[in-house]
Amino acid sequence: MESSKSWLGFLLLSFFPALVSGLQISDPQPTTLEKASGQSVKLDCQFQLGPGDTGPLDIEWSLLAADNQNEDKVVILYSGDRVYEDYYEPMRGRVHFNTADPKNGDASINLTGLKSTDSGTYQCKVKKAPGIGSKKIKLIVMVRPSKPRCSVTGTTEEGKNIVLRCTAAEGTKPMQYKWEKTTDNKLLPASAVLDTVEGTINVRNVSASASGSYRCVASNAVGSEECILHLSVTPPRNTAGIIAGSIIAVLLILILLAIILFCFCRARNRKKYEKEICNEIREDVPPPKSRVSSARSFTIGSQRSSLGSMSPSNLQYMGTNTQYDKIPSAEEYDRPPSQAPLPPPSHARMAGPNLSRMGAIPVMTPAQNRDGSIV
After folding, report:
1. Pairing relation of β-strands 109-111 and 31-36?
2. 71, 18, 67, 89: which is closest to 47 by C-alpha?
3. Cβ-based neighbour number of residue 37 at 10 Å
4. CA nearest 54: which of 108, 131, 123, 106?
5. Residue 151 phi, psi dihedral angles, 5° rounding
6. Strand 31-36 to 131-142 pairing
7. Residue-wise pLDDT tens digits, 237-283
8. For residue 244, what pLDDT is reported?
9. Cα–Cα distance between 220 and 146 in angstroms, integer?
10. H-helix or E-strand containing 121?
11. Dihedral sign computed on CA atoms, order 206, 209, 215, 221
């Protein structure tokens, strides 16, 4: 009988040391905590040692991996009467034991400045040979809604369909949206359809009575935020007048463009015509007077040469003849031949043979046309 009890005690000590040692953790069942980001949380882990737990005390907190592909991350450790807090880099400086001496039965830890990445399942494991115990706590770090943005989609005219929208850029879901009217009768339009998940209000055939101020509240388990929307429903626009005004404006623009184009073409044609006139040689310009002067000098020179070739007797005869006494002036040469003075009729013109018998040398006088040019 004694031998059977000893064998039973050996089996219990070998396979169930926790039952024999008496180490117990209060409330070992998994616990779920929900906290907002930025807050602090206490992960509770209280334990009691039995008379048989005589080995060194080790306390380990770890963040369990979400799947079997990754390893568990040690967050904080107590071993050999010493605390090690720098095991997990993302929580450095934010995790501490609740008491300075955890061996008194309090293995709880405090997490400060919570982040959404701190969410997960944490395990508290206490070991004091031969006893061992553990506890799991699920922590959900929720982000409170950011300040939502209220807006209106659609044309705010009577008879149109509009949508009131409320959207929070940040916040842990599930998130709820609540709309309410804060002015007049504080009732939403009769045709309004509210979607609390998407944060929208669909209003069909909106009327002027829908004008006013609206408030939207976005909330989740850890907080709420709100925004204000001012809605003003206007009468319908005069579509016919707008169309008529648009047509008139288009016509005026076309007329203005036509006037500008006409002026441009006219100025271009005028410039082209003036250029052609400048390059054209006029036919009614009279011949230069230098030709008359040359003809006159030629006649005077011919007469002088003829006079120089006469003999003294001829010169004496010519001295007595009044025809040779008068030398034509420059004005007489400039006159047309039709206006040239005729010689006096009293003296008979001397024929060429008579001049030859008298010893004169015949001289040929160049003929002239009516405008004085030499032929």
Report:
1. unpaired
2. 18
3. 19
4. 131
5. -150, 165
6. parallel
7. 766 677 778 889 998 999 999 999 889 888 888 877 777 776 655 54
8. 79
9. 11
10. strand 120-128
11. negative
Strand blocks (E) in 234-374: none
pLDDT tens profile 22-47? 788 888 778 899 899 999 999 999 99
Structure tokens at 286: 């009279």
CA distances from 15 to 20, 62, 66, 374 (A): 10, 25, 30, 157
Measured distance between the N- and C-terminal CA atoms of the chain, rounded to whole angstroms: 179
Please give the structure tokens belonging to residue 207. Answer: 């009327």
Side chain identity at residue 157, one-letter code:
E
Closest CA to 326 of 309, 336, 341: 341
For residue 209, give every residue at least 6 positions away whose Cβ sits within 8 Å of its Cβ, in sequence order, or none: 184, 189
Peptide bond into 236 cis (omega under 30): no
Rounded distance, CA 246 to CA 273, Å?
Answer: 41
Starting from the edge strand earliest in sequence, which strands make up the sheet with 149-153, in order? Answer: 149-153, 162-167, 200-203, 192-195
d(CA 315, CA 322): 12
Model pLDDT for residues 185-234, shown as the tens digit of each residue: 888 888 899 999 999 999 999 999 999 999 999 999 888 999 999 999 99
DSSP for residue 266: H
**Reported pTM:** 0.51
DSSP 313: H
